[in-house]
Specification:
Blueprint (H helix, E strand, L loop, with lengths): L2 H4 L1 E3 L3 E5 L5 E5 H6 L7 E2 L4 E2 L14 E5 L2 E5 L5 E5 H7 L17 E4 H6 L1 H14 L1 E5 L12 H4 L11 E3 L15 E4 L11 E9 L6 E5 H11 L1 H9 L2 E6 L4 E6 L2 E3 L5 E4 L16 H15 L5 E4 L6 E5 L3 E5 L8 E8 L1 H18 L2
Parallel strand pairs: 9-10
Antiparallel strand pairs: 1-2, 2-3, 4-5, 6-7, 7-8, 10-20, 11-22, 12-21, 13-20, 13-22, 14-19, 14-21, 15-16, 17-18
Helix pairs in contact: 5-10, 7-8, 7-9, 8-9
């Protein structure tokens, strides 16, 4: 038996391959066939698949497999050949987005100059990576003209349209439809919990801030939830299970949805916190689990409003606070309405931001050959 043969073991429905690096991969036969990268199975220009897995039997098995250095060649019953390298497999293990880093009241958001963020790919890449890791950044020295947030589109993607306003003015307004239009303290929350898919990135642009008080407050919601899951797992599960109604409306608009406060991925990692105490509506008392939910919700509110988790800072005119809105809650302290305080906000989508980082990464790789 050759050395190459000893590096490949056929199992009932998979190949076990030991690469020259020493890394061992277990590669299911259907996976091997479905992900063939040849020009017959994929459109080369776009990398889109042409092959459909239903074209082969469920019990598909290769007739031959060989390993030459870092090149695995698999031959199928119809004569088709699929080729992989160890580098191909290793690349799949690297996440496209960086891991997130938890923080508490001692945290200060990274600050980046507005104009270089728009004009310099290297600074844009650094800023977006910081946003993905920490969930928040501040852009400084932006123009204080209304509508400036539209200029962020080349980096953050198109503005996410919502009801009420495309660019939303936040200032004291006797006819405002939201507590944000008053001068009272605004507890940590994320916007539009009343949408089935709330905006996942929010940019808050301070045009003028001459008011006493009104410091901005942010909370790492995922850090809070991790603490809750570690200490009170039943509470965490109750927040994942209970469908909760949320509503925001005015004379011309209505938004309403029913969804859990916490959403997790298939591996139980947290993907979204939907927290807006002001928009939360009444749950019918007969719904099973209401008592458990309210104990859990009370515990969550206690953590969200705990000073140990609140990072505070003041936004001045020309500052833009950008938050990953499914993770980071924002709010403000009360302020004296005798002084002017005018903020505009707009929404973007996390997918577009994350994917722009990948585009910047590819451009950097091409630049360095």
């Amino acid at each position: 038996m050759s050395r190459a043969d000893t590096l490949i073991r056929r199992q009932r429905d998979a190949l076990e391959v030991q690469w020259p690096s020493g890394q061992v991969s277990c590669l299911p036969y259907l996976w091997l066939r479905d992900n063939c990268d040849c020009g017959e199975c994929r459109v080369r220009q776009t990398s889109e698949k042409r092959f459909m897995i239903s074209e082969v039997p469920e019990d598909l098995s290769p007739v031959a497999a060989s390993l030459d250095a870092d090149r695995l060649t698999v031959t199928w019953p119809d004569g088709h050949e699929t080729v992989y390298s160890g580098e191909d497999i290793e690349r799949l293990r690297v996440p496209r987005a960086p891991d997130w880093t938890p923080w508490d009241a001692t945290f200060s958001p990274g600050r980046y100059a507005y104009r270089p963020f728009l004009e310099d790919d290297g600074i844009a890449s650094e800023t977006i990576r910081d946003l993905l890791v920490n969930g928040v950044v501040i852009l400084e020295h932006a123009p204080t003209d209304p509508g400036t947030l539209e200029q962020l589109a080349p980096r953050l993607g198109p503005v996410r349209e919502v009801l009420f306003a495309r660019i939303h003015d936040v200032q004291v307004d006797a006819d405002g439809y939201n507590v944000a239009h008053t001068s009272i303290a605004l507890p940590p929350h994320n916007d539009f919990a009343s949408y089935s898919w709330p905006p996942s990135v929010q940019a808050l642009h301070m045009l003028v801030n001459e008011a006493a008080g009104g410091d901005s407050v942010i909370v790492d919601g995922w850090h809070v939830l991790t603490r809750l899951r570690d200490n009170e797992p039943r509470h965490f599960q109750a927040l994942c299970r209970m469908p909760v109604p949320f509503r925001e409306f005015d004379d011309d608009n209505e938004t309403y949805t029913v969804a859990p406060v916490v959403s997790c991925d298939t591996d139980d990692s947290i993907v979204a916190l939907r927290f807006s105490n002001q928009l939360m509506q009444t749950i019918a008392p007969e719904v099973p689990g209401v008592a458990d939910f309210y104990r859990a919700y009370r515990a969550l509110c206690e953590l969200v409003t705990d000073d140990a988790f609140k990072a505070r800072f003041r936004l001045e005119g020309g500052d833009i606070l950008v938050v990953a809105a499914h993770r980071v809650l924002h709010g403000r302290e009360a302020f004296d309405s005798a002084g002017r305080r005018h903020l505009q906000d707009a929404y973007f989508e996390h997918d577009n931001v994350r994917n722009h980082l990948e585009v910047l990464r590819r451009k950097e790789m091409q630049a360095y050959g």
